[in-house]
Prior knowledge:
Radius of gyration: 23 Å
Low-confidence stretches: none
Number of strands: 25
Amino acid sequence: MKERLMIVGHGMASVRLCEDLMTGAPDRFDITIVGAEPRLAYNRVLLSALLAGDVAEADLTLRPPEWYAQHNIHVITGQRVTHLDLSERSAVLENGAQCPFDRLALATGSEAARLPSPGMDLPGVMTFRDFSDMPDLLGAAARSARVAAIGGGLLGIEAACSLAKGGAKVTLVHVMDRLMERQLDPRSAAFLKRAVERKGVQILLNARTVAVRGDTKADSLCFADGSELRVDLVVVAIGVRPNVALAQVADLPVKRGILVDDQMTTAVPFVHALGECAEHRGTVYGLVEPAYDQARVLARLWAGDTDARYEGTVLATNLKVSGIPVFSAGDFLGEETTRDIVFEDRGAGQCRKLVVKGNQLVGAALVGEASDALWYRDLIRSGEDISALRHNILFGRALCEQSSV
């Protein structure tokens, strides 16, 4: 008899879990997925491309309805799980329906964070997180509105560039001294800043927003230095917070995320968590790759591999930020005991920085051209001796391999 597996959250992590189960343990579970959004799971990463008009809405759907039907996966959309009774192994939905389960996987993701500043609840202040945000953003672009995008990370840059491409007058506001400060050193970030500005986005750095003002709707941002920026719309893209409310209601141990062990299991043996809502060894990952790694571990475990363990993901940022290749991995900032190898081509908008310690590559940051990104990542992860590559490593894998021949 099949176990009843209930997955709460219908996003990229839950779909990958189902895909891996269909490969490794297709006959073990009767699967029910419950999602709060009124649509099938989609690629959230492509929302900015949809906003920019580079892809169609249909391109974002991860799996069509026929796929779920083919694999006997029951999907409930547009319903939140409001309560979990772990003693009875039952979940209660918004509409009052009860869903029994034998095993539970929480893939509740994250929710957009907002600044704790006055005026953040005014009409005209919004986040950029899911499909429900798209109509207002598309409307602002179409009418060439003045938009302030708060946040100099990936999401803020993507929102700013996409809105600018659509016709909005965009100012990107960031509290730090450079864009993507968690992924880039100052030199590389300066190249990214120039590339973003060439896309029609004005950038304000070291700008701490202290309030949003307006009588009936947001009409200006106020900064710590006393200056103001007139706006028609404010888009807050400062990051996300793990969505742990349901776990807290069920008395599951929670810190920043839902606490899990190396088998993605909570304090309750039949309850698991993965993706942006899970906290593993003190880390909450806000990226897709770790969620996919975690899904793979769960699928292996349920397929009978009792040795399946998730030991964390060595992060490397390898992205196209609004069409601009950006990569970083390892210790890209460097320290006193490391040495930097740097290449710059301002005309082409390319910057390449490698950080070497002894005979090992320990960090890399690339902007504008990143075709060798995965090679650099593998060198960092393996700790390989690069002595023989030292003179050519800055120019990529092809030259190094040619030279060795």
